[in-house]
Amino acid sequence: MVVCYYMSSALCLAALFRASTADPGRLPVDPHIPHSEREHWELCNKCNLMRPKRSHHCSRCGHCVRRMDHHCPWINNCVGEDNHWLFLQLCLYTQVLSLFTLVLDFCQYYYFQPLTGMDQEKFTTRHELALLRVSAFMGMVMFGGMASLFYTQMTGVLSDTTTIEKMAQFSNDACGSKRSWQWALAEVCGTRWKLLWLLPLRVRQPLHASHLFRTHVIWKPL
Ligand SMILES: [Zn+2]
Ligand SMILES: [Zn+2]
Fold first, then answer.
1. Domain residues for 130?
2. For 19-35, what is each residue's pLDDT tens digit?
3. Measuring CA to CA, which residue among 69, 63, 38, 62 is closest to residue 52?
4. Residues, beta carbon < 5 Å, ion ligand 1
5. How many A from CA of 156 to the centre of ligand 1?
6. What is the DSSP secondary structure assignment for residue 78, as one 8-state letter?
7. Are 157 and 184 in contact (CB under 8 A)?
8. Can you give the pTM of this predicted structure?
9. Are 204 and 216 in contact (CB under 8 A)?
10. 95, 102 contact by CB (below 8 A)
11. Domain for residue 34, yes or no?
12. Active-site annotation, residues
């Protein structure tokens, strides 16, 4: 249990670090647009650059991001095509850690504390109880918040709709929800290996297959 706790802590920190520092899918100044995809590109009226459809201009970061989901103030970065998988991992590991907190608080309160037969009036015992309650409260708030966020994120991934598109009441029928959950997650994480979906320390390679159009930009060779 202790090993699992340290492992999920390390994975959570790695996901947090990578999600906040990774490039969310910023558009290059001079992208090479394949001829067959030209009709799927448009001009951003804020930064005056060409971008694939479903990109969004982030006013906080001041640039366009491919398939942008939202700008997350917690990681101080956009969540877009290239770091969405890291954001999902961060949500997942935060949930795991808050669950650990709740389980450990429960064990301490109902199992270990009665065993030691501590005096309830003692100063240290009173403070330990107060800390336990604060920790359990934080665990519940964190778990509830992260679980609902993870749920909305997953429904978005499975129906291929970003948070921005949901808010704009826009449903892209062409990209609809005809994909299986395995394919939807494989596309977001950039690999079909399910174990790799959980690892934050790797490089995402976009999958190109039976996609209607590719949103990933090919950099012009210098
Ligand atoms: Zn823009
Ligand atoms: Zn942003």
1. 2-198
2. 999 999 998 888 788 78
3. 38
4. 44, 46-47, 57, 64
5. 23
6. E
7. yes
8. 0.83
9. no
10. no
11. yes
12. 72
